Amino acid sequence: MSHTISVTMEAGVAAQPNELGLIICKSCNEVLATLPTDGYKKFYVVCPGCARKDNNKEASE
Question: From which domain of life does this come (predicted)?
Fold first, then answer.
């Protein structure tokens, strides 16, 4: 017997069954996407919004 579970993350990204990989912004901790992986894994990147903030901050200095 198989059960399908759908999980909604804080950022509104709906995870599909067996999508245990998370792509998380390392600046704002927003969940950007999910990935189908064999086990629970977290990948940290900088989202476009935080990248723009960082670029604007560097340009003004």
Answer: Bacteria
Residue located via tokens 């476009």: 48
CA quadruple 12, 14, 20, 25: dihedral positive or negative? negative
Instruction: With CA atoms as reference, report the closest residue to 21 among 47, 41, 44.
Output: 41
Count CB neighbours of 41 within 10 A: 11
Q: Is the pTM of this model over 0.90?
A: no
Q: What is the pLDDT of residues 20-32, one digit of tens each?
A: 899 999 999 999 9
